[in-house]
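Q: Convert this sequence to structure tokens.
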Amino acid sequence: MALKDQILDDVKAAMRAGEKSRLVTLRMLTAAIKQHEVDSRTEAEDADTLRIVEKLVKQRREAAEQFRKAGRTELADKEVAEADILKAYLPEPLDDAALDALIDEVIAATGAASPRDMGKVMNAIRAQAQGRADMGAVSKRVKARLAG
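A:
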């Protein structure tokens, strides 16, 4: 079953169960997917859906951080709860050892030797680690490996 279809089934299940907060979050997700489809004029594939979910989780984390800084803990808790609902659609995250092994493997496969080759390495890693690792943190690790 495609990820998009699973999300739509979960929307129906949340409606039947009367889970309002979950329903609102999933409807927001389906709206983002639909917007992507309208913008790109194509059907959203699993990779597209994963990118959208990842983006929304990141937005929720950043919003929660901003609300905490402003002393609005109730709004921060709401954002964290939404992020937790969305995280259920992301694949299992890579641990540090697996991520380091993946970086080493891709560097060896691409023949990267200097920071100039970072784009090649990141494109290859992005294809394999989509939704499983924070690409900002991966970028820092790759840069450190290629620099030294």
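The longest helix spans residues 46-69.
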